[in-house]
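Quick board copy: two proteins, each given as sequence then tokens.
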Amino acid sequence: MAPRKRPETQKTPEVVLRPKSKRNRSPRELEPEAKKLCLKGPGSSRRSDSGCLWAGLASLRVPAPCSSIIRALHHYKLGRTSWPSLQQGLQQSFLHTLASYRIFQKAAPFDRRATSLAWHPTHPRILAVGSKGGDILLWNFGIKDKPTFIKGIGAGGSITGLKFNPLNANQFFTSSMEGTTRLQDFKGNTLRVFASSGTCNIWFCSLDVSVRSRVVVTGDNVGHVILLNLDGKELWNLRMHKKKVTHVALNPCCDWFLATASVDQTVKIWDLRQVRGKSSFLYSLPHRHPVNAALFSPDGARLLTTDQKSEIRVYSASQWDCPPSLISHPHRHFQHLTPIKATWHPRYNLIVVGRYPDPNFKSCTPHELRTIDVFDGSSGKMMYQLYDPESSGIMSLNEFNLMGDTLASVMGYHILIWSQEEAGMRK
């Protein structure tokens, strides 16, 4: 069955760019209508408006570093400081800067909630976001020009996976409920269809791309995983899980290493060179609940998983089958909420995840805030919580750009850009 014709690319009909002053902002100014794209200027968190709700975050403020980064680098160069100690110092310095992070840009271009996001691999201010209606926003928030808006098919077109093409930064891959995994350009043209189900009962839920191995991997809602080369040739198509494959991830350092997550409550690790069938996995990691995501760390040595209830796990490559580091965290699944997925910071051993307060969670407190939580990847200790009282919804997706200095969040149909307050004022 031939893939459905994609609607033509459009420019977003209206963009409002307004620098904000700290004194004149009101909560309604940060709540644009769903069908408009409103870009807001720098703002503050106005802690006085939150009263006692902010008191719970005060204890998580990171103390100032005891010595300067320049001194730490100098000591490392002289051999007086080990590399792990230097990394820890740099991480503490970064955590200290989170106190100055604010939402300085906000957009609401979709009429349905946002479902996926991806940072550009070479430009730290370009972001792609997909929606439940199949719309895609290509947003360079560093310039005043209107973002590019690619119209989707509407109902049934949800973008479930989004990746820029590592070989051509003006192209991107998508998987969708439309039943295809495809390569598109910034004008919305379909360059190649890698997989097509040919039926409305089967759709694709996840994808990843390897530039070294030149392969595309995609998973569907009935447990199949398909591996293709970048020319579109199918290498294999196997049922690797009993139910929907919610996430596929290739190891950034050993890209023949594949992790697949599923609602069948397992995460499996595969060697692409040795896949022969559904039982040829290297490891099967059972979970107590369905799993939303499985992501390798930037150094490829650890695996981060997010279930659909209250657990974040960190597995180590040295012993995959040993009990993992387990972080208790409320992020339960809700049908009309984009599934919450924890991510790694690209430069530090930090985990970033949105909080969905649960009254049944053992540590839940009255009036608990819907924060973005930052955990240490080794100890599992909470290091910081980001919160803006004017954008207090559930942050389902949160991801830092490759520079590690700007955070993009998805909150319903809103897209939020966090950065240091002084940096945000200059942009």
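And the next:
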Amino acid sequence: MVEEGVLMVREFDPEKDCLGVEDVERRCEVGPSGKMSLFTDLLGDPVCRIRHSPTFLMLVAETGDEKEIVGLIRGCIKTVTCGKKLSRNGKNTNDLSKPLPVYTKVAYILGLRVSPSHRRMGIGLKLVSRMEKWFSENGAEYSYIATDNDNQASVKLFTDRCGYAKFRTPSILVQPVFAHRVNVPKRVTILRLAPSDAETLYRRRFSTTEFFPRDIDTVLNNKLNLGTYIAVPAGTYCNESWPGVDKFLSDSPESWAVLSVWNSKAVFMLEVRGASPLRRGLAKITRIVDRAFPWLRIPSVPEVFRPFGLHFLYGLGGDGPQSVRLMKALCGFAHNMAKESGCGVVATEVSSHEPLRLGIPHWKRLSCDEDLWCMKRLGEDYSDGSVGDWTKSPPGLTIFVDPREF
């Protein structure tokens, strides 16, 4: 353990800490020997991944005399749906059966880093404890983290030493952006919704989904949001005949699907390192052939061995017997948007039980079947309300992944 007084945990100072933080990030992102690894470039803004959250904080761990930054942690707080209850204010039996969201204040930890030269000294535990103290002071009832299921050091720290429990295992699905455009079937019509229509649709159809953010309007109106798109069978609507979201919801077509697109490329860049010359060469050949003969629609490997950006798809949903097919068309449309923006991949994260998952194109090699989420209740002096202890609740079919935290 670090001796008292030797280590100081304090709030990140952007005026003097950027270089030290970048050095820790660089030293921590050393992949396994002989294997490919994913590196993240935060574009000179260490708080970029939490900056758009309602409340956020970044802490650094600094050695006493040398003033060397040896660890860091980021955290944010928001209000989300943790369950649902039946309305008791309705005037008829239909209203009485309408589910309403139950909200809670939840905190999210991401980007915990400890310099390799200072590990096994209790620094990670101290950073987590200090961040949790700030969470509690700001009214958060729960704290959760997302980590790779194979990262045993991280899993053990949170589950064995910090009191977190394994909670959810959503899947990260990643699709490369090819050199050719993806065909969107002509029998599908895709419409862009105004932010106000998108907000109404999400609140009325998805507000009881686990982790749905109560400030969805802030998300949809953020400059990083590239739009919300809805797919319906051709002939149902066009831009001129769109009836508005209220009429759509009161008389929905038999099948439809929806998703929103977030421009993560403006926040951070990614890079795959550790690939062999042979792997790089084969990937380059696929891109050359794809560009030369786009009509062949070869599934080419994008240039991921240099910094590349991504678009994140969130708020995926839909209904009806054709919803999977419509979701696939939406993902193709999103792929073409990403191609025009120069992105390397399109990514999303969904529940492992998500019914629409079959309509989301992805490469297994680039994806993660189980992104482990661990959760902890920060105190016992909260009302159990309609949900009880959220950490003990069973998973639902769907989950809402906030793009501000991906």
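Board note added afterward: The domain at 7-139 is CATH 3.40.630.30 (Aminopeptidase).
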